[in-house]
Structure formats: structure tokens, C-alpha cells
Amino acid sequence: MGKNTVFSDDIKEIVIDEQELKDRISELGKEITDSYEKDDDIVMLCILRGAILFMADLAREIDLPVVFDFMDVSSYGASTESSGVVRIIKDMEENIEGRHLLIVEDIIDTGRTLKHVVDMLETRDPKSIKVVTLLDKPDRRVQKEMDADFNGFEIPDKFVVGYGLDFAEKYRNLSFIGVLKEKLYI
Ligand SMILES: O=P(O)(O)OC[C@H]1O[C@H](OP(=O)(O)OP(=O)(O)O)[C@H](O)[C@@H]1O
Ligand SMILES: Nc1nc2[nH]cnc2c(=O)[nH]1
What we know:
The protein contains three helices and nine strands; from the N terminus they run E-H-E-H-E-E-E-H-E-E-E-E. It is α/β, with parallel strands linked by helices. The strands form two sheets. The protein has a six-stranded mixed β-sheet with strand order 4-3-2-5-6-7, sandwiched between helices. The protein has a three-stranded antiparallel β-sheet with strand order 1-9-8, with helices on one face. The longest helix has 18 residues. It is globular and about 50 Å long. The two termini are 24 Å apart. The relative contact order is 0.21. The site of guanine has 9 residues, from strand 8. It catalyses: IMP + diphosphate = hypoxanthine + 5-phospho-alpha-D-ribose 1-diphosphate; GMP + diphosphate = guanine + 5-phospho-alpha-D-ribose 1-diphosphate. Belongs to the purine/pyrimidine phosphoribosyltransferase family.
């Protein structure tokens, strides 16, 4: 398991290891770079808190000038099941009217969080909205139309932690994506 030995006893399974994350994020950076023009005005919006590590690594693989912004949104609380109620805890700061918006998510699960964020930001008249997600759980989608423009990995219907994703705020600093042992959810 290498780093993060403090969590070794908690992990049942590694779903995506550190090298696989690195390689795919590098490819995503190229795909995103190729999808814009060199002089496009792009705001990269990190959806806190889960997407923070992905945003940091992805931004360095995008060969375009980008502006960073952050929005804190929460729907899971300390549970592994979405509450269905999406709360905006902190709005973004940039004015996105007439600019290209790239939303950076760690995971699209039911799609409720993304739907809420996209619907809200569309009213601010950006020139375009694209979404990049590291992980996608298509089997869990409630909001069927909520697919990303760029998608790192499709994963099965398992609650995952690591590389930004938490369970009750823990495990975000794991360098891989994994599944916890069942006893920890009790
Ligand atoms: O597609 P959905 O079912 O809406 O789930 C996806 C959202 O759930 C997680 O956020 P969470 O509310 O756990 O906040 P966090 O990123 O601060 O951990 C994750 O970061 C996504 O934003
Ligand atoms: N940590 C974590 N947060 C999520 N939010 C939606 N799905 C997930 C998941 O599998 N893991």
C-alpha cells in the first residue's frame, strides 16, 4: 500500500491505484486542452471538498491559462447515502458571464449535486459549461441527463474513499481510491 499506512487496516480493496490516477489525469488534461482555443477565458471551478486533490493535479496537466475558483456544496453529510438536499455552503467568487466554465467534480453518483450546480450557474450566462469528473457511477444516476464531458473512470456501485473523497471527513488524504471494510460503516 506504500504511503498512508495509518489506514492500512481500514481498507478492504484498492479500486484505482496512485499510478492509474496519475496516468488518467494526464490524459484528461490533454483532452481538455484540445477541446478549447488557446485564448479562451476559462474558469476552473472546484466543487469542494472532494475535488480538491483532483483539481490540483488536473490543473497542472492543462496547457491553457485558467482561473481557479471554488464552490462548497454538500448533500451527503456524514452518510454514504445522498440526502437529496443539495446545500450551497460557499458560492464561487468569479463573474462567469461570457466566460468558459469548467466544473471539476470528484464523483457523479445520483447526479443531484451536479444538476443543482449546473442549473444555478446556467442562469449566470457563461459562454459554455463543461464538466470533468474523476469518477462516474452511472448505475446510480437519478438525474439521467447529468453526464460529464470528460470522465476519468467508470466505477461500480460501491462507496469509495481516498484521493479527496471522504467517509465522515476521513480518508481524503489517501493517495488511491479504495473501499472501506464493512465494519467501519456501523
Ligand atoms: O451525484 P451525487 O449523488 O450528488 O454525489 C456526488 C457528490 O457527493 C460528494 O459530495 P459531498 O456532498 O459528500 O461533499 P464533499 O465533496 O465535501 O465530501 C461528491 O464530492 C459530489 O459532489
Ligand atoms: N466519499 C464518497 N462520496 C460520494 N458521494 C457520492 N458517491 C460517493 C462515494 O462513493 N464516496
